[in-house]
Amino acid sequence: MKVIFNDAQRRHDPKFFLSSGAPRPNPEQPARVDRLLAGAKAAGLARMEPVEHGLGPIAAVHTAEYIQFLDTIRERWARIDGASEEVIPNIHPDRRGGAYPASAVGQAGYHLADTACPISEHTWESAKVSAWTAVTAADEVAGGAPAAYGLCRPPGHHAFKDLAGGFCYLNNSAIAAERLRAKGAARVAILDVDVHHGNGTQGIFYDRGDVLTVSLHADPVRFYPFFWGYAEERGEGAGLGANLNIPLPRGTADDAYLEALEAALKRIRAFAPDALVVALGLDAYAGDPFQGLAITTEGFGRIGAAIAALGLPSVLIQEGGYLSDELGDNLASFLTRFRDAHGKQG
Protein backbone atom coordinates (compact mmCIF):
# COMPACT_ATOMS: atom_id res chain seq x y z
CA MET A 1 0.00 0.00 0.00
CA LYS A 2 1.25 3.48 -0.87
CA VAL A 3 1.01 6.83 0.89
CA ILE A 4 0.39 9.65 -1.56
CA PHE A 5 1.56 13.15 -0.67
CA ASN A 6 3.24 16.25 -2.09
CA ASP A 7 5.07 18.91 -0.07
CA ALA A 8 2.94 21.67 -1.62
CA GLN A 9 0.28 20.54 0.85
CA ARG A 10 2.41 21.98 3.66
CA ARG A 11 2.22 25.55 2.31
CA HIS A 12 -1.29 26.25 3.53
CA ASP A 13 -0.57 27.64 7.00
CA PRO A 14 -3.77 29.11 8.49
CA LYS A 15 -3.43 31.45 11.46
CA PHE A 16 -6.95 32.52 12.35
CA PHE A 17 -9.41 30.39 14.34
CA LEU A 18 -12.33 31.61 16.41
CA SER A 19 -13.49 29.33 19.22
CA SER A 20 -16.34 30.39 21.53
CA GLY A 21 -15.71 33.97 20.43
CA ALA A 22 -12.00 33.93 21.29
CA PRO A 23 -9.21 34.06 18.68
CA ARG A 24 -6.91 31.04 18.96
CA PRO A 25 -4.16 29.43 16.85
CA ASN A 26 -5.63 27.39 14.02
CA PRO A 27 -5.34 23.66 14.90
CA GLU A 28 -4.96 22.55 11.26
CA GLN A 29 -1.20 23.12 11.22
CA PRO A 30 1.40 21.98 8.66
CA ALA A 31 3.20 20.11 11.47
CA ARG A 32 0.45 17.49 11.23
CA VAL A 33 2.11 16.29 8.02
CA ASP A 34 5.37 15.21 9.66
CA ARG A 35 3.60 13.07 12.24
CA LEU A 36 1.30 11.49 9.69
CA LEU A 37 4.17 10.72 7.32
CA ALA A 38 6.05 9.16 10.22
CA GLY A 39 3.02 7.01 10.97
CA ALA A 40 2.72 5.88 7.35
CA LYS A 41 6.42 5.03 7.27
CA ALA A 42 6.13 3.05 10.50
CA ALA A 43 3.33 1.06 8.87
CA GLY A 44 5.63 0.25 5.94
CA LEU A 45 3.95 2.38 3.26
CA ALA A 46 6.03 3.60 0.32
CA ARG A 47 5.59 7.25 -0.62
CA MET A 48 4.24 8.28 -4.00
CA GLU A 49 3.77 11.75 -5.51
CA PRO A 50 0.26 12.67 -6.64
CA VAL A 51 -0.36 13.18 -10.34
CA GLU A 52 -1.54 16.64 -11.41
CA HIS A 53 -5.05 16.24 -12.81
CA GLY A 54 -6.17 19.80 -13.50
CA LEU A 55 -9.59 21.02 -12.44
CA GLY A 56 -11.67 18.27 -14.04
CA PRO A 57 -11.96 15.89 -11.06
CA ILE A 58 -12.56 18.86 -8.73
CA ALA A 59 -15.28 20.27 -11.00
CA ALA A 60 -16.97 16.86 -10.99
CA VAL A 61 -17.88 17.60 -7.34
CA HIS A 62 -17.68 21.38 -6.84
CA THR A 63 -19.43 24.17 -8.74
CA ALA A 64 -17.59 26.35 -11.26
CA GLU A 65 -18.65 29.43 -9.29
CA TYR A 66 -17.01 28.08 -6.13
CA ILE A 67 -13.82 27.01 -7.91
CA GLN A 68 -13.50 30.49 -9.43
CA PHE A 69 -13.97 31.98 -5.95
CA LEU A 70 -11.19 29.87 -4.44
CA ASP A 71 -8.89 30.65 -7.35
CA THR A 72 -9.31 34.45 -7.21
CA ILE A 73 -10.47 35.53 -3.76
CA ARG A 74 -7.07 35.95 -2.11
CA GLU A 75 -5.84 38.37 -4.79
CA ARG A 76 -9.11 40.30 -4.78
CA TRP A 77 -9.19 40.45 -0.96
CA ALA A 78 -5.66 41.90 -0.87
CA ARG A 79 -6.86 44.91 -2.90
CA ILE A 80 -9.32 45.92 -0.16
CA ASP A 81 -7.91 48.79 1.85
CA GLY A 82 -7.24 47.63 5.41
CA ALA A 83 -8.30 44.02 4.81
CA SER A 84 -7.02 41.21 7.01
CA GLU A 85 -4.05 39.13 5.86
CA GLU A 86 -6.28 36.07 5.46
CA VAL A 87 -9.72 35.93 3.86
CA ILE A 88 -12.15 35.59 6.77
CA PRO A 89 -15.92 36.18 6.46
CA ASN A 90 -17.53 38.90 8.52
CA ILE A 91 -21.04 38.19 7.24
CA HIS A 92 -22.97 34.92 7.37
CA PRO A 93 -26.06 35.16 5.14
CA ASP A 94 -29.35 33.63 6.23
CA ARG A 95 -29.99 32.48 2.67
CA ARG A 96 -27.97 31.14 -0.25
CA GLY A 97 -29.13 31.02 -3.86
CA GLY A 98 -30.79 33.68 -5.93
CA ALA A 99 -28.64 36.81 -6.17
CA TYR A 100 -24.86 36.41 -6.03
CA PRO A 101 -22.82 39.37 -4.71
CA ALA A 102 -19.97 40.83 -6.75
CA SER A 103 -18.20 42.00 -3.60
CA ALA A 104 -15.25 39.93 -2.34
CA VAL A 105 -16.59 40.43 1.19
CA GLY A 106 -20.03 39.21 0.18
CA GLN A 107 -18.65 36.20 -1.66
CA ALA A 108 -16.51 35.27 1.34
CA GLY A 109 -19.67 35.18 3.43
CA TYR A 110 -21.44 33.15 0.76
CA HIS A 111 -18.73 30.50 0.33
CA LEU A 112 -17.17 30.24 3.83
CA ALA A 113 -19.46 28.68 6.41
CA ASP A 114 -17.40 29.68 9.43
CA THR A 115 -14.11 31.32 10.45
CA ALA A 116 -12.19 28.03 10.66
CA CYS A 117 -11.04 28.04 7.04
CA PRO A 118 -9.16 31.29 6.35
CA ILE A 119 -7.71 31.64 2.86
CA SER A 120 -4.13 32.84 2.53
CA GLU A 121 -1.53 32.98 -0.20
CA HIS A 122 -0.99 29.23 -0.60
CA THR A 123 -4.40 27.86 0.37
CA TRP A 124 -5.74 27.26 -3.13
CA GLU A 125 -2.50 25.59 -4.26
CA SER A 126 -2.45 23.26 -1.25
CA ALA A 127 -6.15 22.43 -1.60
CA LYS A 128 -5.75 21.55 -5.28
CA VAL A 129 -2.79 19.26 -4.59
CA SER A 130 -4.71 17.68 -1.72
CA ALA A 131 -7.55 16.93 -4.13
CA TRP A 132 -5.08 15.50 -6.67
CA THR A 133 -3.75 13.30 -3.88
CA ALA A 134 -7.27 11.90 -3.44
CA VAL A 135 -7.64 11.40 -7.20
CA THR A 136 -4.29 9.62 -7.43
CA ALA A 137 -5.23 7.31 -4.55
CA ALA A 138 -8.52 6.51 -6.28
CA ASP A 139 -6.69 5.82 -9.55
CA GLU A 140 -4.33 3.43 -7.75
CA VAL A 141 -7.27 1.43 -6.47
CA ALA A 142 -9.20 1.63 -9.74
CA GLY A 143 -6.05 0.31 -11.41
CA GLY A 144 -5.99 -2.81 -9.26
CA ALA A 145 -4.27 -1.89 -5.99
CA PRO A 146 -6.19 -3.35 -3.02
CA ALA A 147 -5.89 -0.05 -1.12
CA ALA A 148 -4.12 3.32 -1.12
CA TYR A 149 -3.74 6.05 1.50
CA GLY A 150 -4.08 9.67 0.41
CA LEU A 151 -2.48 11.97 2.97
CA CYS A 152 -4.82 14.81 2.10
CA ARG A 153 -4.03 18.09 3.78
CA PRO A 154 -5.96 20.38 4.06
CA PRO A 155 -8.78 17.94 4.83
CA GLY A 156 -12.12 17.97 3.07
CA HIS A 157 -15.20 16.32 4.55
CA HIS A 158 -16.86 19.55 5.78
CA ALA A 159 -16.74 21.11 2.29
CA PHE A 160 -20.02 21.16 0.34
CA LYS A 161 -20.32 21.68 -3.42
CA ASP A 162 -19.88 25.45 -3.03
CA LEU A 163 -19.11 25.99 0.65
CA ALA A 164 -15.95 25.67 2.76
CA GLY A 165 -16.02 25.05 6.48
CA GLY A 166 -14.28 23.34 9.38
CA PHE A 167 -10.71 23.58 7.93
CA CYS A 168 -11.99 22.09 4.62
CA TYR A 169 -12.01 23.66 1.14
CA LEU A 170 -12.35 20.80 -1.37
CA ASN A 171 -14.08 17.57 -0.41
CA ASN A 172 -11.33 15.04 -1.01
CA SER A 173 -13.40 12.01 0.02
CA ALA A 174 -16.21 13.00 -2.34
CA ILE A 175 -13.70 13.66 -5.12
CA ALA A 176 -12.20 10.19 -4.59
CA ALA A 177 -15.65 8.58 -4.67
CA GLU A 178 -16.62 10.44 -7.85
CA ARG A 179 -13.32 9.40 -9.43
CA LEU A 180 -14.00 5.74 -8.59
CA ARG A 181 -17.43 6.12 -10.20
CA ALA A 182 -15.85 7.59 -13.33
CA LYS A 183 -13.37 4.71 -13.44
CA GLY A 184 -16.09 2.09 -13.48
CA ALA A 185 -17.33 1.53 -9.93
CA ALA A 186 -21.12 1.45 -10.24
CA ARG A 187 -21.62 1.89 -6.50
CA VAL A 188 -19.29 3.42 -3.92
CA ALA A 189 -19.62 3.63 -0.15
CA ILE A 190 -18.02 6.37 1.94
CA LEU A 191 -17.38 5.54 5.59
CA ASP A 192 -16.47 8.57 7.71
CA VAL A 193 -14.81 7.80 11.07
CA ASP A 194 -13.76 11.36 11.89
CA VAL A 195 -14.92 12.65 15.30
CA HIS A 196 -16.96 15.30 13.46
CA HIS A 197 -19.86 14.51 11.17
CA GLY A 198 -18.97 14.62 7.47
CA ASN A 199 -21.65 17.18 6.68
CA GLY A 200 -20.18 18.31 3.37
CA THR A 201 -19.92 14.75 2.08
CA GLN A 202 -23.49 14.07 3.16
CA GLY A 203 -24.69 17.21 1.41
CA ILE A 204 -22.94 16.41 -1.86
CA PHE A 205 -24.50 12.95 -2.19
CA TYR A 206 -27.74 13.43 -0.23
CA ASP A 207 -30.02 12.99 -3.24
CA ARG A 208 -28.03 10.24 -4.94
CA GLY A 209 -28.47 6.49 -4.64
CA ASP A 210 -25.18 5.42 -6.23
CA VAL A 211 -23.01 6.61 -3.31
CA LEU A 212 -23.77 5.45 0.22
CA THR A 213 -22.59 7.87 2.92
CA VAL A 214 -22.09 6.57 6.47
CA SER A 215 -20.70 8.65 9.35
CA LEU A 216 -19.87 7.76 12.96
CA HIS A 217 -19.22 10.88 15.03
CA ALA A 218 -19.72 12.67 18.32
CA ASP A 219 -23.37 13.64 18.75
CA PRO A 220 -23.77 17.08 17.10
CA VAL A 221 -26.37 18.23 19.62
CA ARG A 222 -23.44 19.81 21.50
CA PHE A 223 -20.56 19.32 19.06
CA TYR A 224 -19.47 20.68 15.67
CA PRO A 225 -21.02 20.83 13.07
CA PHE A 226 -24.16 21.19 15.26
CA PHE A 227 -26.72 21.41 12.43
CA TRP A 228 -26.03 18.12 10.60
CA GLY A 229 -25.28 14.55 11.61
CA TYR A 230 -28.52 13.40 13.22
CA ALA A 231 -29.87 9.87 12.85
CA GLU A 232 -33.04 11.18 11.18
CA GLU A 233 -31.07 12.39 8.13
CA ARG A 234 -31.53 9.50 5.70
CA GLY A 235 -31.18 11.15 2.28
CA GLU A 236 -33.84 12.37 -0.10
CA GLY A 237 -35.17 11.58 -3.56
CA ALA A 238 -33.05 8.90 -5.21
CA GLY A 239 -30.79 9.02 -2.16
CA LEU A 240 -33.43 8.18 0.42
CA GLY A 241 -31.95 5.41 2.58
CA ALA A 242 -28.43 5.98 1.19
CA ASN A 243 -27.28 8.12 4.13
CA LEU A 244 -26.66 6.69 7.61
CA ASN A 245 -25.59 8.77 10.59
CA ILE A 246 -24.55 7.15 13.86
CA PRO A 247 -24.10 9.90 16.45
CA LEU A 248 -22.23 8.74 19.57
CA PRO A 249 -22.20 10.08 23.14
CA ARG A 250 -19.23 12.27 24.03
CA GLY A 251 -16.44 10.14 25.48
CA THR A 252 -17.40 6.93 23.66
CA ALA A 253 -14.41 4.55 23.94
CA ASP A 254 -13.14 1.55 21.99
CA ASP A 255 -15.62 -1.22 22.77
CA ALA A 256 -18.78 0.88 22.33
CA TYR A 257 -17.33 2.46 19.19
CA LEU A 258 -16.56 -0.94 17.65
CA GLU A 259 -20.11 -2.05 18.37
CA ALA A 260 -21.48 1.01 16.57
CA LEU A 261 -19.01 0.47 13.72
CA GLU A 262 -20.41 -2.99 13.15
CA ALA A 263 -23.82 -1.44 12.45
CA ALA A 264 -22.16 0.84 9.89
CA LEU A 265 -20.36 -2.08 8.25
CA LYS A 266 -23.58 -4.08 8.12
CA ARG A 267 -25.22 -1.25 6.11
CA ILE A 268 -22.22 -1.09 3.77
CA ARG A 269 -22.40 -4.84 3.14
CA ALA A 270 -26.10 -4.51 2.32
CA PHE A 271 -25.33 -1.73 -0.17
CA ALA A 272 -22.88 -4.09 -1.94
CA PRO A 273 -20.51 -1.39 -3.23
CA ASP A 274 -17.77 -1.97 -5.76
CA ALA A 275 -15.32 0.17 -3.77
CA LEU A 276 -14.98 1.92 -0.43
CA VAL A 277 -13.70 5.38 0.55
CA VAL A 278 -12.71 5.76 4.20
CA ALA A 279 -12.73 9.34 5.46
CA LEU A 280 -9.99 8.65 7.98
CA GLY A 281 -10.20 11.14 10.79
CA LEU A 282 -7.95 10.38 13.75
CA ASP A 283 -9.45 13.06 15.98
CA ALA A 284 -11.64 10.50 17.77
CA TYR A 285 -8.49 9.86 19.83
CA ALA A 286 -8.84 10.31 23.58
CA GLY A 287 -5.95 12.78 23.61
CA ASP A 288 -6.95 14.83 20.55
CA PRO A 289 -7.38 18.57 21.24
CA PHE A 290 -11.09 18.39 20.34
CA GLN A 291 -11.89 15.81 23.04
CA GLY A 292 -15.01 14.39 21.40
CA LEU A 293 -14.52 10.63 21.73
CA ALA A 294 -12.04 8.44 23.60
CA ILE A 295 -10.50 5.98 21.12
CA THR A 296 -7.08 4.57 22.09
CA THR A 297 -4.12 3.85 19.82
CA GLU A 298 -4.98 0.16 20.01
CA GLY A 299 -8.57 1.05 19.24
CA PHE A 300 -7.58 2.58 15.91
CA GLY A 301 -5.95 -0.72 15.00
CA ARG A 302 -9.16 -2.58 15.83
CA ILE A 303 -11.14 -0.09 13.72
CA GLY A 304 -8.76 -0.61 10.80
CA ALA A 305 -9.04 -4.39 11.00
CA ALA A 306 -12.84 -4.26 11.19
CA ILE A 307 -13.10 -2.05 8.11
CA ALA A 308 -10.63 -4.20 6.19
CA ALA A 309 -12.81 -7.25 6.86
CA LEU A 310 -15.24 -5.84 4.29
CA GLY A 311 -12.73 -6.99 1.68
CA LEU A 312 -13.41 -4.04 -0.59
CA PRO A 313 -10.98 -2.09 -2.78
CA SER A 314 -10.38 0.83 -0.43
CA VAL A 315 -9.24 4.44 -0.75
CA LEU A 316 -8.18 5.87 2.62
CA ILE A 317 -8.43 9.66 2.71
CA GLN A 318 -6.93 11.62 5.60
CA GLU A 319 -9.38 13.94 7.32
CA GLY A 320 -8.92 15.27 10.88
CA GLY A 321 -6.53 14.28 13.63
CA TYR A 322 -4.72 17.15 15.30
CA LEU A 323 -1.43 17.59 17.09
CA SER A 324 -0.74 15.15 19.88
CA ASP A 325 2.32 13.04 20.60
CA GLU A 326 0.43 9.94 19.49
CA LEU A 327 -0.94 11.17 16.15
CA GLY A 328 1.59 9.21 14.08
CA ASP A 329 1.20 6.13 16.28
CA ASN A 330 -2.57 6.22 15.82
CA LEU A 331 -2.19 6.29 12.04
CA ALA A 332 0.40 3.50 12.11
CA SER A 333 -1.91 1.39 14.26
CA PHE A 334 -4.83 1.85 11.84
CA LEU A 335 -2.80 1.30 8.68
CA THR A 336 -0.91 -1.74 9.95
CA ARG A 337 -3.98 -3.61 11.14
CA PHE A 338 -5.96 -2.52 8.07
CA ARG A 339 -3.24 -3.75 5.69
CA ASP A 340 -2.77 -7.06 7.49
CA ALA A 341 -6.50 -7.81 7.72
CA HIS A 342 -7.18 -6.60 4.18
CA GLY A 343 -4.46 -8.91 2.85
CA LYS A 344 -6.16 -11.90 4.46
CA GLN A 345 -9.36 -11.04 2.60
CA GLY A 346 -7.55 -11.59 -0.69
From TrEMBL:
Coiled coil: none annotated. Its cofactor is Zn(2+). Belongs to the histone deacetylase family. Keywords: Hydrolase, Metal-binding, Zinc. PANTHER family: HISTONE DEACETYLASE 8, HISTONE DEACETYLASE HDAC1-RELATED. One of its GO terms (molecular function) is metal ion binding. It comes from Futiania mangrovi. GO terms for biological process: epigenetic regulation of gene expression. The lineage of its organism: Bacteria, Pseudomonadati, Pseudomonadota, Alphaproteobacteria, Futianiales. Signal peptide: none annotated. Residues 27-335 form the Histone deacetylase domain. This is Histone deacetylase family protein. Pfam families: Hist_deacetyl.
